[in-house]
Design goal:
Elements lengths: L5 H12 L5 H6 L5 H4 L3 H15 L13 H15 L1
């Protein structure tokens, strides 16, 4: 199972939450909160939904509670690896 990249997350943030963030920004400041980036809880829920549809795998319940992109990627990628 492929890991979610910062590029994929940035694309999902735009698609699901309407927030444009560069992958570089996510790499340089991985602990910037989703709230600071402009992604609210509904946006994060949309990102989780898109990932579930794309990968055909349920995401962890805690995914929609993640506060930062780095925390989100760590949780989701750990789950994807465990399910591989």
């Amino acid at each position: 199972m492929p890991q979610i990249t910062v590029e994929e997350l940035a694309a999902l943030m735009k698609k699901a939450a309407g927030v444009t963030v560069s992958p570089e920004q996510l790499v340089e400041k991985p602990d910037t909160g989703f709230d600071v980036l402009g992604v609210d809880s509904l946006g994060l829920l949309g990102i989780v939904g898109e990932l579930e549809n794309t990968h055909g795998t349920p995401m962890p319940v805690d995914a929609e509670r993640c506060k930062t992109p780095q925390q989100f990627l760590n949780l989701v990628n750990t789950t994807l690896m465990a399910g591989a």
